[in-house]
Amino acid sequence: MQSDPSQPIVSFDDVHLTYDGERDVLRGTRMSLGTGDFRFLTGPSGAGKTSLLKLIYAAHRPTSGSVEVFGHDLSAMPADEMPKLRRRIGVVFQEFRLLDHLTAFENVALPMRVLGVSPNNYRDDVVELLSWVGLAHRIDAQPTVLSGGEKQRVALARALVSKPDLILADEPTGNVDPVMGEKIMRLLLELNRLGTAVVVATHDLGLVRGLKQPILRLKDGQVNLHAPIQDEPQAVAGAAQ
């Protein structure tokens, strides 16, 4: 499954998302994300940031309009093709989604096992990632004995282990201290520098202000692209591109 590098890797065209036939989360949203882009996704609590991320990795389907990822219309994609696409996306879930019966090492290695990769080819990567996020001493621990911040770091390492083309991070610093939060963001920025597209959903304006990256602002069902925060955010003319 290949996509044209000159085309957006994510494209929303007139996307509507309605819950229970009543509440409009997205209303005619248009936006795009290119190869190597870094975007903060911000907006009021309940605006639909998590829902928008779920549309990108096809956990939700739009009520109307089209969502294309890596050049494929998700609504038209056969179910048996979806796993291939999702393997190109690393997701850091707000609720972690770790398997309690597996160790930290085994949770991080799970995507590689699903891909059928030999343990000899991923063991060093898993150990290195867990060491980088400060969990070398917890490599054999199960999630039931990990703190919330430790679980967040395991979830991040799991999202990165397969070297995805796109990373979607939902409040990745929400359960860690400021020092580890900065370390996590520096890792995401380094991956972005190497060509991985990154979307970070957050309500932490201090984080957004400090890293000075473009912002996708979600409000009232619409997404608009803003320049990095300096003193005050400055909207870029037109819809998100």
The pLDDT mean sits at 88
The largest pleated sheet is described as:
6 strands, mixed
Order of helices and strands: EEEHEEHEHHHEHEHEE
Terminal CA distance: 24 Å
Radius of gyration: 18 Å
Q: Helical content, roughly?
A: 25-40%
Strand content: 15-25%
Number of strands: 10
- Give the strand order, joined by hyphens, for the main sheet: 6-7-8-3-9-10
**Low-confidence region ranges:** 233-239
What does this structure look like?
This protein has a domain of 69 residues. The radius of gyration is 18 Å and the shape is globular. Helix content is 31%, strand content 24%. The strands form 2 sheets. Strands 6-7-8-3-9-10 form a 6-stranded mixed β-sheet, sandwiched between helices. It has a 4-stranded antiparallel β-sheet with strand order 2-1-4-5, covered by helices on one side. It contains 7 helices and 10 strands. It is a peripheral membrane protein. Belongs to the ABC transporter superfamily. Its main location: membrane. One of its GO terms (cellular component) is plasma membrane.
Features:
ATP-binding; four-stranded antiparallel sheet; 24% strand; ATP hydrolysis activity; 10 strands; six-stranded mixed sheet; Cell_div_FtsE; 7 helices; alpha/beta; 241 residues
Summarize the structure.
GO terms for molecular function: ATP binding; ATP hydrolysis activity; transmembrane transporter activity. By secondary structure, the protein is of the alpha/beta class.
